[in-house]
Amino acid sequence: MDVTTNERSSMASADILIDSFNRVRDAVHPLTGGLSREQLAFRAGAETSNSMAWLIWHLTRVQDSQVADLAGSEQIWTGQGYFDRFGLSLPVEDTGYGHDSDAVDSVVADPALLVEYFEAVHARTLEYLDTLSESDLDRIIDTRWDPPVTVAVRLVSTIDDDLQHAGQAAFARGLLPEIE
After folding, report:
1. 99 is a domain residue
2. In this structure, how many other beta carbons lie within 10 angstroms of the beta carbon of residue 56?
């Protein structure tokens, strides 16, 4: 089968995005292993830092929100019942932007539930990426910026945000004191 140049670049773009989101997954998975809810809620800087639970929840909520918006679908958070299962005292649409210290403290979760929610969002993300063509990636979705934001730019921004928060969580895990 003869593959045109445009088809090749489309496959390469999707492959790069899939690889990048898989790297987020690779960064998130080691963060919760063997930890308790209390350890995940530890804040190294007391009121000035975020807990590992908040960081993992937030990066997952952002990815869920962004991909659902791009795909025109319901978020995993509500569509698969994670909002109810987490039982947080936050509004259903909350993704963590602008949280104060009390809101960060309110995000306490079972490590297995955090990973389960992340995995559900990751699977949805890969399914969505599998549907995209090069022209889909070039579609402008936000004209408030100069240059306007495309689907590709939004996805790269999400990857960037996720990896930064995963790195912060890895740093926090390294500072974790022994909890008896």
Report:
1. yes
2. 26
CATH code assigned at 143:
1.20.120.450
Residue 4 within a domain: no
> Quick check: helix, strand or coil at residue 150?
strand
The DSSP bridge pattern shows strands 140-142 and 149-150 to be antiparallel
The pLDDT tens digits for 81-96 are 999 999 999 999 999 9
Domain extent for 90: 13-175
Residue type, 16: I
Reading the block at residue 85, the tokens are: 């299962």
In 3D, which of 134, 161, 150, 149 has the Cα closest to residue 62? 161
pTM, two decimal places: 0.90
Total domain count, the chain? 1
> What single-letter amino acid sits at 61?
R
3-state secondary structure of 141: strand
pLDDT bucket at 5, cuts 50 / 70 / 90: very low
Q: What is the mean pLDDT of residues 12-24?
A: 92
Dihedrals phi, psi of 150, to nearest 5 degrees? -100, 170
